[in-house]
Amino acid sequence: MPADRAARLGITILGCAVLVIGLAVAGIFVLLKYVPATPGVTHLSLAAGSPAGANAVVRRRFERAFMASALLDLPQVPPQRDEPSLQISFFQRGALIQGGVIRTPANKFRLAGFLAYEQAGGTQTQVRYYGNLPEGPHVVTLSGDEKQIVFTIDGKVLDRVPRATFLPDLGSNDPWLMLGTAVGAPGNGAYGRISHIRIRNEYDKAWNIEPNCIVTTGGITMVRSGDTLRLGGRYRPGVPARYRNCSASDLPG
């Protein structure tokens, strides 16, 4: 994949996958004043030369309906230039929508929810923030059908957007799913855990879809234990991409 294409499809926010069944999470989401979308840049970190990252990839048919949920645990981080985040992303060639949790320098690294998207045919990713969250893990869900995509945190609907705008029906161009993180500044680290992963589409009703590929770049690591993905490592420019259970040719080009 060309480096510029990887950079357009990815997961670092502003400078850098659903139903929840039997899952209780401590804390109540605190919704603050809505902040309009602002320009941002995202990266999937799929190729050498792109910003560092680690992502678990799912290639299945999500043509009419999709549901992806995970417990995202992004701990407190030391002050840094980067904006540590964990997110669920559905993307196509030329379009993207992702939701997750993030800590930004501007927000004094307090935990917050965000939704990022790039309209089909667009050249600029937009980001919306939804207020601070209590410290600790939170269930993030992206679900969609032929009409809309719904973003929730801890069961609270935070946004609904038209699917045709962000993940249009382009025949064989079904969305892909990624769960992971990205790091934009050399020397900065990746943090947190992604667990209780629940994924399904209109063909799989038993929540039996699992990530079947892990891609890491730039020295960032992702270690899988059961259904938990642990993020770590620091961004070291020049460290090549590593693929587990897949190859570069398996991914969107």
Helix and strand topology:
Layout: H1 3-8, E1 38-40, E2 52-58, E3 66-73, E4 85-92, E5 95-103, E6 111-118, E7 125-132, E8 138-144, E9 148-153, E10 156-162, H2 163-166, E11 176-183, E12 193-201, E13 213-217, E14 220-225, E15 228-233, E16 242-244
Antiparallel strand pairs: 1-7, 2-11, 2-13, 3-8, 3-12, 4-5, 4-11, 5-6, 6-7, 8-9, 9-10, 12-15, 13-16, 14-15
How would you concisely characterize the structure shown here?
Helices cover about 5% and strands about 45% of the residues.
Question: What does it look like?
Answer:
It is a single chain. This protein has 253 residues and is mostly beta strands. The chain has one domain: Sandwich (Jelly Rolls). It is 4% helix and 43% strand. The chain has two helices and 16 strands. It has helices at residues 3-8, 163-166; strands at 38-40, 52-58, 66-73, 85-92, 95-103, 111-118, 125-132, 138-144, 148-153, 156-162, 176-183, 193-201, 213-217, 220-225, 228-233, 242-244. The strands form two sheets. The protein has a nine-stranded antiparallel beta sheet with strand order 1-7-6-5-4-11-2-13-16, with no helix packed on it. The protein has a seven-stranded antiparallel beta sheet with strand order 10-9-8-3-12-15-14. The longest helix has 6 residues, at 3-8. The radius of gyration is 16 Å and the shape is globular. The protein starts with a helix and ends in a 9-residue tail after the last strand. Residues 1-50 have low confidence and may be disordered.
Characterize the overall form.
globular
Q: Report helical residue fraction.
A: under 10%
Distance between the termini: 5 Å
Strand order of the largest sheet: 1-7-6-5-4-11-2-13-16
Number of strands: 16
Instruction: Report strand %.
Output: 35-45%
What is the domain tally? 1
Low-confidence stretches: 1-50
